[in-house]
Design the sequence.
């Protein structure tokens, strides 16, 4: 090995280290370290969409089937039935949030007690419960398909038959 070769090898090493360092510095400038405030894309259906147009075409029987598959492990639907992991859902449409007195709600849902379960609130809740009420104990990821939410809400409407006179709700 002569010294010319060694010089060339040393120069090559110095240059590649220099290039690596330079690209590191440049990438630091070009790619910001902080996450963007707004995601660059959003998953379809996960943003709050207006549920009203979908309710017009919703199917109560499909909703009943979905509720049986997804919700029934935690919720009772029949009036007077005892609460499960979650509160009884009979008459839930239109009633104030976290208002079943025999059920112990999370602080998160209780903080929304001055709102009611409108169709839109139910849709937003079912889209992503933890987004609607951060800290909620309802451990359901959410139902991203808007037509399925509409079907379920249409079914929940059927649980709102007027109570016989003199009976308390639940
Ligand atoms: C894994 C159990 C679980 C499943 C599955 C589940 N829930 Fe819940 N749900 C809960 C719990 C627990 C709460 C109470 C949450 C809290 O207090 O933060 C709740 C609360 C609710 C409430 C609020 C009721 C009120 O009185 O304010 C609604 C509405 C609701 N669930 C609807 C549904 C629907 C519809 C489904 C099916 C699509 C569903 N849940 C599936 C556990 C569940």
Sequence:
């Amino acid at each position: 090995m002569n010294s010319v070769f060694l010089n060339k090898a040393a120069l090559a090493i110095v240059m590649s280290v220099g290039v690596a360092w330079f690209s590191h510095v440049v990438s630091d400038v070009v790619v910001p370290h902080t996450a963007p405030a707004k995601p660059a894309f959003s998953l379809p259906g996960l943003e709050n969409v207006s549920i009203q147009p979908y309710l017009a075409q919703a199917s109560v029987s499909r909703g009943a089937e979905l509720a049986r598959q997804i919700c029934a492990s935690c919720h009772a639907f029949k009036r007077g039935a005892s609460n499960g992991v979650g509160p009884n859902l009979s008459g839930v449409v239109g009633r104030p949030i976290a208002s079943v007195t025999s059920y112990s709600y999370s602080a998160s849902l209780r903080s929304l007690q001055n709102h009611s379960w409108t169709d839109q609130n139910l849709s937003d809740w079912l889209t992503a419960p933890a987004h609607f009420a951060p800290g909620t104990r309802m451990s359901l990821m959410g139902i991203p398909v808007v037509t399925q939410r509409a079907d379920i809400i249409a079914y929940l409407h059927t649980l709102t038959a007027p109570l016989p006179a003199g009976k308390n709700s639940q």
